[in-house]
Amino acid sequence: MAYSINPNLPKARAIAMQLLIREGLPLSVVANRCGVHRSTVWRWKRKWNKINANVQLTNSNRPNRSATVSSFRLAACTWHIPTTTSKPYHHLWSVPDETVRLVLTVREKLKRCAEVIWHHLITVLSVTVSLSSVRRILRRHHCFDGARKKRVRPDNPRRPRPTYPGELVQTDTIHHVDPSSGRRLYFYTVIDLHTRLAYAKMAIKLRPGLAAEAVFEAQKMFGFSFSMVQSDNGPEYGHYFEQQLQSHNIQTRHSRLHRPNDNAHIERFNCTIQTECIGYYWRKSVPLSRQTTNLNKYLDYYNQERVHLGIQLRTPAGMLQRS
User: Fold this and answer.
1) Domain of 297, in residue numbers
2) d(Cα 113, Cα 243) in Å, to the nearest integer?
3) Nearest to residue 166, comparing CAs of 189, 197, 188?
């Protein structure tokens, strides 16, 4: 990118060069008229000389002629001086061109990821290069563009607008980690986008079957059937999860990769339930039975009493009665 995006700068430089060369004004006078420093005008003059290096301003065959340049020769000159880029031309720590070519050659030969290419360069070819440099070289040369996973699945159905209960339901998983042992506790959450009825199930394992059971239990609790369930691309929402829901005539769809806003409703519910009920980490001091009891009490409060701004300060149960 250029150091300045002002489109009038080339024209301003051209006016300064015409004052300096065509009219023959002193350098200080030109700097005062243009409102810049004398050194700036001098740098412009050096660039102007470089641009017009192929233009012959003097005639060596007539040494006795006046030193002023004729208007005929000045008409062949280029006066506008473009704004150059601010990108550095080189760096002391830059990777040599030989190493870059070697990385690309190994990539073309092995057809593997950056880690394998780096290991081959270090162990086999004895080339000193960092893994981050190999990744940056491959990324700049677009070596992984074709192998990149698509953000949208080709078989993803169109997202409907939730006009009735169960038309679109979102599900997600909350990962709770014990800071001391690193063990995990999982909460499978489900929310209906029309009524905002929510459900959560606690488990100690991350499995597609448990995620499907959470959807079925939520459907039984809400009292209406689900038409479509949307989830992210986590491992618990894979092929087996889709098979279980399709066996109950429930269509599935997935959000785009690295687009959490596609599941904004369930992400908002996850934040709310963590803030108001389950916390942000696994409290091993509290028994699981007590955590389950507190979770069920909070779900009753969330669905029956807690008002929501997204549904005009109504409760999810009130929205279900309206439907």
Assistant:
1) 169-322
2) 32
3) 197
